[in-house]
Amino acid sequence: xxxxxxxxxxxxxxxxxxxxxxxxxxxxxxxxxxxxxxxxxxxxxxxxxxxxxxxxxxxxxxxxxxxxxxxxxxxxxxxxxxxxxxxxxxxxxxxxxxxxxxxxxxxxxxxxxxxxxxxxxxxxxxxxxxxxxxxxxxxxxxxxxxxxxxxxxxxxxxxxxxxxxxxxxxxxxxxxxxxxxxxxxxxxxxxxxxxxxxxxxxxxxxxxxxxxxxxxxxxxxxxxxxxxxxxxxxxxxxxxxxxxxxxxxxxxxxxxxxxxxxxxxxxxxxxxxxxxxxxxxxxxxxxxxxxxxxxxxxxxxxxxxxxxxxxxxxxxxxxxxxxxxxxxxxxxxxxxxxxxxxxxxxxxxxxxxxxxxxx
Amino acid sequence: xxxxxxxxxxxxxxxxxxxxxxxxxxxxxxxxxxxxxxxxxxxxxxxxxxxxxxxxxxxxxxxxxxxxxxxxxxxxxxxxxxxxxxxxxxxxxxxxxxxxxxxxxxxxxxxxxxxxxxxxxxxxxxxxxxxxxxxxxxxxxxxxxxxxxxxxxxxxxxxxxxxxxxxxxxxxxxxxxxxxxxxxxxxxxxxxxxxxxxxxxxxxxxxxxxxxxxxxxxxxxxxxxxxxxxxxxxxxxxxxxxxxxxxxxxxxxxxxxxxxxxxxxxxxxxxxxxxxxxxxxxxxxxxxxxxxxxxxxxxxxxxxxxxxxxxxxxxxxxxxxxxxxxxxxxxxxxxxxxxxxxxxxxxxxxxxxxxxxxxxxxxxxxxxxxxxxxxxxxxxxxxxxxxxxxxxxxxxxxxxxxxxxxxxxxxxxxxxxxxxxxxxxxxxxxxxxxxxxxxxxxxxxxxxxxxxxxxxxxxxxxxxxxxxxxxxxxxxxxxxxxxxxxxxxxxxxxxxxxxxxxxxxxxxxxxxxxxxxxxxxxxxxxxxxxxxxxxxxxxxxxxxxxxxxxxxxxxxxxxxxxxxxxxxxxxxxxxxxxxxxxxxxxxxxxxxxxxxxxxxxxxxxxxxxxxxxxxxxxxxxxxxxxxxxxxxxxxxxxxxxxxxxxxxxxxxxxxxxxxxxxxxxxxxxxxxxxxxxxxxxxxxxxxxxxxxxxxxxxxxxxxxxxxx
Lengths: 359, 708
What we know:
With 359 residues, chain A is an alpha+beta fold. Chain A is built from 13 helices and ten strands.
């Protein structure tokens, strides 16, 4: 006589070979058919065994039957789950993404800076890139003999050009043009400080993002065209301590909440006192690493208290008003933030570069 | 400026090592270029043995006084509250007092007092030979080559106190004369570097009775150079006007240690000190001795400059109270004399210090400069950081910023990548784009190279170049835009947006076969951009470079031309090595003109957006196919319909254009969808049919259109 354990092993082997509902039916019939099924046959055989063994054998046989039924039901469910749906789609294929272009990294940085300063109460203003010497130099305490006005630093435009670009402060007047006919590509956004002050009374809080030009051959770290953001705050009793507060607020939002700033005395003709500002390196938190060339500091901007000669040039009362200004290179910030190794990459417009920036 | 630490110790007992001193000086405004140890070298007899090093400092243009050991010693002493030893007060710093008078050995005449306010000279008998080892070693550490004892002495004084001097061989001066005069036109001189130079009257020279012997403040001449046989020299020490020296240096393309100092501003009093120092050094190293009096020509005496620093102003600018003792300590350390005598007689807000500016501080001209001196040595790092309270509501931003950002977002959302190209371009490259009109092109007077010789009239040449760059780097599908300035003689500076699109019309996807970009992809973007500014555009066919005829249009808003759109002429693309099969579609829009049109609209139709109530009755749609002449623009058909729109017609859309089988030659089938709706009732079939008949009748009459 076959025993229950043997029969179970045989059943499991059969079940293993089942690949379809039909196979399953065959296996089911083989074991559970009321007539001729192997389990039914086993029960019949048990009836012929000694009475003392019968309850135990009967129990085993019944347990086997329940087990087989459960196995078959489970298998049936699995077969149903695996059955392909007519017309089913392949959900693993790529989706159809709406096109989204990448912002230029300089615009990303510029927009972040604008957002911070706007929140701090600064208006964002733009000015002309083709400037005259008065706004770019004279009014900024750089008289004609100043070395910064040397031809090798400034790109001058040849011939005349109508100076009626639409600017926040209105067009360049005919008078201005007659007095100062030479047009140049501005070497800094500071020229717009002058224009804005000529057109507005204090208090003033502005930032001026824009394109600037220098007569530099392009290389790893130089570009004849780059971008700056100028800041200007003028009011009564505005001090160097206020300047530190504004720039620290900016730096902590722009870079890292733990950022520290270091103000080193420096020299610019249009500010007095003047300073250069370093930010604590966020990669090493000031400990010294490759990014900060082991110094713990990264130079990010130049700034200072507006020189009284600048206030006088725009007709402000330099006794009543004080203020500060700063100038920041947008490329410089982008280079530091994104680890760009060659400034020329910003102007090659290589999609392999542009596509690395977040959408 | 290279500062050997051992030399600095002549003036101040430095209490920091070289690295720490450099770091501290950086916080006073002297950036460090490098700090290097110095190998052991011969030391002067007064020097105490100590580790030597050289600190190379970057001196800002306003501090010519710090192009010297003494200048940096003064800053160091003030910074560390140490005593500064002045010339004539310690061993190694000897100064021999000279008596002023007229010399019978040399005559000195200033003929151009505007360029040379002070000129001093003294004659010495000398024995030319090598310098003592310690002196040569110090010069070498400071970056100066040792030549002979006399030249070395002048260079030693130059480095030590920053005053350039020059030694002429007296016997080589014709007439034993020194005339400080403007050069004659065409006059020539061979300078110490062996170069023959032609001069002009803008250049100041030191001449003998006949000819120029030195270019004043820049370089001596070879003829009167001190040489091995020299026995009598005349030492010159002068103050030359900075602008004159700068002009000369630029004109001759010659920058020297002397010119660098004079053009930033010399010390008018150092002229005498330098000669007295030279006199002492001559004796101490046994190189000779001064004979005769000191000739001092000072036709333009300088008055002493005094500036008031108000305590209140100091506080207002720094944002902190600096103690009076600290203010006085800093000033006196830096060589400024202070007096407070008048303090008691003035109003409190005027109270402060009367500060006498030393002659070597040519940069200190007004009160703000004094504030900087206090701030610098008080330490910027000690100032608090406070946030200034607003003194007025924030001003509005330039509307162009938001305008540009709006346009930028639309184009990014259409899958275009933002480019930034150079504002200056190559003249010839721009000409190929039909922008060569000489009257309009704005050139650059001093371009870096022929590649960058004009400012761009259009953003397109740069953008197409960016397309070509990417095409060379295995990209076929390229979509770029740029927002930026462009320039022309008649229009001035103007802001534009440009688009360039080549390759696939949409990102490739497994579900569809690709289609390349065409005119209408780019036109859609233009419509979108204008629409975002509340404007609608129309296109009129054009045949202008750089666009391919038949696929080019000008963009018009409210009757004014605001840009162009179309396919780049394949010849232009081919010239940039772009594959001939790849069409590049571009558009450029004048953002300022669009903005002006928008402002006009806002003025004429204020209130901008008003909401219409939603329709209460259903609309009825009818499709029509018409056969018309193929040259008839769709916009004309639409215009005809709208000009005599039947009652209830609310919309006309084109949904198909077909040429081919079933359509007569030179004709086209246009399919239109007409939408009818009434605000008052549900339209009946009869109402709609009447409208359709009216449209068909009108189109037949005006354009000979027949229904297909």
